[in-house]
Write a structure and sequence with these properties.
The structure holds 2 protein chains of 2 kinds.
Chain A lengths: L1 H37 L4 H7 L13 H8 L5 H32 L5 H11 L8 H10 L6 H5 L6 H12 L4 H8 L4 H12 L1 H17 L2 H6 L8 H8 L7 H21 L1 H9 L6
Chain B lengths: L27 H27 L2 E3 L5 E3 L3 H5 L3 H21 L1 H11 L6 H9 L6 H11 L7 H7 L12 H29 L3 H9 L4 H12 L1 H16 L3 H7 L11 H11 L3 H25 L2 H6 L1
Antiparallel strand pairs in B: 1-2
The chains are: A mainly alpha, B mainly alpha.
């Protein structure tokens, strides 16, 4: 009798859980659906009625998408290209530099190591938004305003990424170091030939997080990038949000197309995404 | 945490090592950490010192600088600043109020062995985090439009309310900012709490069950205390992100909202620094913001007994 009632109770819990999770999943995914549907509607419809639940097949067409990519006044392809270049530049540099720092902090015992690690932790707590004014002045004097490097350089060695690689590298087997030394390998040889391959899972997670944050970053590119042709997608889309002008046609398809690359990467690498957020981050 | 790094130089290698700095484990570590040192000195330390100095100056043109003492800080005593402070504080408060308990409960549900499709739901709930604030903001901006037909007004109409002019009033501004934040961050916080839950041994729950604990007892006496490190982490990053919020407000109102609706501290820095070209005053706002974030996190970490644990 008792067994039977537990089983029944469990089934009720399972169904309740399923309902709760389905409800929140619908809320999480609904905006994508509405944006997708709205992207096929003419701009005047968005201006007149906002985003709404009506599907009106008679007025929907792929005209907006054609306009977005082929219209002479549309800079969307420029923005796409800029976003890709900046994301690639940022991600490659960030991985190369921060993995070395994290590794160095984790495996060597040198004077000043604890101080540097403490600085990493403290810097993680500084809102980068307060640095934008002096950094802007600095970029003006370095003549990096309106350049890809100007966007990438200041935040390429992110303390979070350093911390992440350090946490991962602490767990590496140290015997390899001595084995490498005995075989006559330089310290850099040990890193590049032996340790880096062991850190591949960390690279996998970090590549995604760095690429995502670079693709989506807003305030710093907003300040550095000065001409319409140089904007990244988020800044470009933000420039379309004006009370005047007829840019509504491009806003929705532009937003939809900006999600596509990151969504594809996510669907292919969900595990790396999720572990990237939690490895080392929470244990402290 | 600091002491957990193994000592690597305890074994002396007596093999013939070439006399080259690339082979010296005394020099090489500094080359490894050099990128951080350079980046820290030029972009962080220099910038902070520079902001502090600028906050005591009136700057008109790059070389036309005048020391004015505390004048910029005294000028903070104005309605725009207090409005921005209120918006940032309210936004942070409400995001904490929503984005700690809700993701915690959802993580418990997701973690339950009786839940089916756990990986599927974890992914669907995480997907909003992939979008940029601007892209998400575009959706919410046009869903919270003033027309009767918009998504938001259509929903409240079915409850017999509305329509509301969401973007034009201070009282709804915080609400639509928090809605956007909740939608984007729920899945991320769920991931944090899930990773914490997976670290709790099931034996704890089993022995509590033998002692006659019910579900609610188990949640408050085992789950929450074991999740303490995660809660501290999530509160810390939420305070940081809450006070640093800018893009959300920009997506709704751009940088000069009428009547300061939704104007945040960072929005005010941007306005004064880039629209009004008053770098000195903008720096004073920045330093105040830095102080607020540090003090709040210190209070929070002390309340949670974080420092006590470290010194034990």
């Amino acid at each position: 009798m008792k067994m039977k009632s537990t089983r029944k109770k469990n089934r009720i819990i399972t169904i309740t859980n399923l309902i709760i999770l389905s409800l929140f999943s619908v809320i999480a995914l609904a905006p994508f659906y509405f944006m997708f549907v709205s992207s096929f509607k003419p701009g005047e419809e968005l201006l007149r009625n906002g985003i709404n639940v009506n599907i009106q097949p008679q007025i929907m067409s792929i005209k907006n998408y054609v306009l977005l990519f082929t219209d002479e006044s549309s800079l969307y392809l420029h923005w796409y290209k800029n976003s890709i270049i900046i994301t690639l530049l940022h991600t490659v540099l960030a991985l190369f530099l921060t993995s070395m720092v994290g590794y160095g902090l984790a495996v060597y015992n040198f004077k000043g190591r604890n101080l540097i690690f403490t600085v990493v932790l403290v810097v993680m707590m500084i809102p980068i938004e307060i640095l934008i004014l002096p950094l802007y002045k600095l970029m003006v004097s370095l003549k990096l305003i309106n350049t890809y490097f100007g966007v990438v350089l200041p935040f390429v060695v992110s303390p979070f990424a350093v911390f992440f690689f350090r946490q991962y590298a602490v767990g590496l087997p140290k015997d390899y170091l001595d084995a490498g030394r005995i075989d006559g390998c330089s310290e850099f040889g040990i890193y590049f030939r032996i340790m880096m391959p062991l850190m591949l899972p960390a690279f996998g997670a970090m590549v995604i997080l760095q690429a995502m944050s670079s693709w989506n970053s807003f305030i710093w590119p907003l300040i550095v990038l000065r001409t319409n042709e140089m904007l990244t997608i988020p800044i470009g889309l933000a420039s379309l949000i004006t009370p005047y002008g007829n840019n509504y046609d491009m806003l929705m398809p532009g937003a939809v197309m900006s999600i596509v690359p990151i969504l594809i990467i996510f669907l292919l690498n969900q595990k790396a995404f999720i572990s990237g957020l939690t490895v080392g981050g929470v244990k402290g | 945490m600091l002491s957990s790094v193994p000592q690597t130089d305890t074994i002396t290698i007596k093999y013939n090592r070439k006399k080259n700095i690339f082979y010296s484990d005394k020099v090489v570590p500094y080359i490894f950490v050099l990128p951080f040192i350079i980046s820290f000195l030029t972009f962080y330390l220099y910038s902070i010192i520079s902001t502090i100095m600028m906050s005591f100056q009136t700057i008109s043109g790059l070389n036309d600088v005048e020391f004015v003492g505390l004048k910029n800080y005294m000028n903070l005593n104005n309605p725009h600043f207090f409005n921005a402070l209120t918006v940032s504080a309210k936004y942070t408060f409400f995001t904490l109020l929503v984005l700690i308990p809700l993701p915690m409960l959802l993580a418990v549900v997701l973690n339950s062995k009786m839940t089916i499709g756990r990986n599927f739901f974890r992914s669907t709930l995480f997907i909003p985090a992939l979008t940029s604030v601007i892209v998400a903001g575009i959706f919410f901006r046009y869903s919270f439009g003033e027309q009767e037909t918009t998504l938001a007004n259509a929903i409240i109409k079915s409850f017999g309310i509305g329509p509301i002019v969401w973007l034009q009033s201070k009282s709804t501004a915080i609400f639509i900012l928090v809605v956007l934040a909740t939608w984007r961050w729920l899945g991320v916080n769920i991931v944090y709490f899930l990773s914490g839950l997976q670290g709790i041994s099931s034996e704890l729950y089993e022995s509590a069950e033998i002692d006659g604990a019910n579900t609610i007892d188990k949640f408050f006496k085992i789950t929450i205390p074991c999740l303490k490190p995660v809660i501290i982490y999530v509160v810390t990053i939420s305070v940081y992100a809450g006070f640093a919020m800018f893009a959300e407000s920009f997506a709704y109102w751009r940088s000069t909202p009428p009547g300061d609706i939704g104007l945040t501290l960072v929005g005010y820095i941007y306005q004064e620094g880039f629209n009004n070209n008053d770098l000195g005053f903008a720096s004073a706002i920045g330093i105040t913001l830095l102080a607020i974030v540090f003090v709040l996190n210190l209070i929070q970490l002390t309340l949670f007994g974080f420092f006590k644990k470290e010194s034990d």
